[in-house]
Design brief:
Blueprint (H helix, E strand, L loop, with lengths): L2 H19 L30 H7 L1 H4 L5 E5 L3 E3 L2 E11 L5 E11 L2 E7 L12 E2 L1
Antiparallel strand pairs: 1-3, 1-6, 2-3, 3-4, 4-5
């Protein structure tokens, strides 16, 4: 190979290396790329199973806007990296009569997260609920 050919090959190799260096790691699921160039597999830890009764009891004002009575909770269910639990309570309605409210509560890192009102047809309606 001539000197010009070697220089061209060196420049092409340097440009290719610089281009790939700017890309970072490759997805760990890609098998046609050598493992040393793949991104390490995620090692995110899963939240441990929460004590739903204690968590809801300690955060009643956060879970319900009104003063709840007859609060009952279901067992925690894993949802991806976090947990969900069904919670029901009687809260004062607009006319003063008690109204049953059923919520699906998300639990993230041991704290109450999103709360979503659900109907009696929701999966959590079949959970065995226990009073707190």
């Amino acid at each position: 190979m001539s000197l010009a050919g070697k220089a061209r090959a060196a420049i092409t190799g340097a440009c290719l290396a610089a281009t790939l260096a700017g890309c970072g790691y490759v997805d760990p699921g890609v098998t046609f790329v050598p493992e040393r160039f793949r991104q390490p597999s995620p090692t995110a830890s899963l939240d441990p199973e929460p004590d739903v009764k204690k968590l809801v009891a300690d955060n009643l004002q956060l879970v319900f806007a009104a003063h709840p009575t007859n609060v009952r909770v279901g067992p925690p269910h894993r949802e991806g990296m976090h947990w969900q639990a069904c919670v029901t309570a009687l809260v004062p309605g607009a006319g003063g009569a008690p109204l049953e409210v059923r919520l699906l509560v998300s639990i993230e890192q041991g704290k109450v997260g999103d709360r979503t009102r659900v109907t009696a047809e929701h999966w959590c309606a079949a959970d065995a609920l226990e009073p707190i």
